[in-house]
Amino acid sequence: MYEKKIMDQCVNSCLEGMQKGEGGPFGAAVVKDNKIIAVAHNTVVKSNDPTAHGEMNAIREACKVLNTFDLSGCELYTTSEPCPMCMSAIIWANIKKVYFGCTVEDAQDIGFRDEHILKFLRSGCSEKNILDLEAVDKCECEKAFDYWRNDIKKIEY
Ligand SMILES: [Zn+2]
After folding, report:
1. In terms of DSSP bridges, do strands 27-32 and 35-41 run parallel, antiparallel, or are they unpaired?
2. 59-110: per-residue pLDDT in tens?
């Protein structure tokens, strides 16, 4: 169930991050049984890492705290609708519920490029001026897939 005080902590986290020049106006929290596991904010600028979005940082921190790559049963709060990268990370983490404040359109209004990525995805990844995605010979790569297929010690995820 949504709790405003948790979203308030996400907002406070990213306000603090912006005051320190660490990144954009995006804060996020991973929550389990309405208890905060991790709160984080965007640190793209501070860490020179284009993947250091609030949601990614919160997921990474929560996985460290819980010592797992599987956040099943957790919920995510974020000050802004997740971008496609974070959306994917949230799904990879097995989180099934997200509460978000501002929308993709709001983020676009202040200069963020989510819409650009969504346009590429909606085009069926065919907009080569955004990203040229080319399939090449997979012969060598299949060696790794064969190894995984036959590995009896693997930890599936
Ligand atoms: Zn993101």
Report:
1. antiparallel
2. 999 999 999 999 999 999 999 999 999 999 999 999 999 999 999 999 999 9
Residue 50: per-residue pLDDT: 97
Residue 67 and residue 150: Cα distance in Å, rounded?
Answer: 27
Residue with tokens 């919160």, as numbered in its chain: 58
* Residue tagged active-site, from 3, 16, 22, 55: 55
Say how many C-beta atoms besides its own lie within 10 A of residue 45's C-beta: 15
Q: How would you label 50-73 residue by residue, b for 16+ Cβ within 10 Å and e otherwise?
A: eebbbbbbbbbbbbeebeeeebee
142 is catalytic: no
Q: Is the pLDDT of residue 114 over 90?
A: no
Whether the CB-CB separation of 76 and 28 falls below 8 Å is answered with yes
154 C-alpha to ligand 1 centroid (Å): 30
